[in-house]
Amino acid sequence: MDIRPERVDDSADIGDVIVRVFGRADEARLVAQLREAGDAAISLVAVAGGTVIGHILLSAMAASFRALVLAPLAVAPE
Q: Closest Cα partner for 10 from 37, 28, 22?
């Protein structure tokens, strides 16, 4: 397994993993919205055998100090 930064061509695979993990598309839409708004600070994928099997996203958070929020974290159930 390799962990690497998200690439542009990973977005569909990331969405698929997130939907499988959460059983709905809400979290996948959140990731897409954060990405499109430029708020995704760190987005990493876990890849095994050329397949995205996990994703983690950290995005900027409004606070009185510099902070990132973790949401969501998804790992393929299998």
A: 28
Nearest alpha carbon to residue 68 among 40, 45, 44, 46: 40
| Total residue count of the chain as it appears in this document | 78
CB 39 within 8 A of CB 1: no
| pLDDT tens profile 12-41 | 999 999 999 999 999 999 999 999 999 999
Which domains, ranges and CATH numbers included, belong to the chain?
Answer: 2-75 (3.40.630.30)
Residue 5 confidence (pLDDT): 98
Classify the C-alpha dihedral 38-12-30-41 as positive or negative: negative
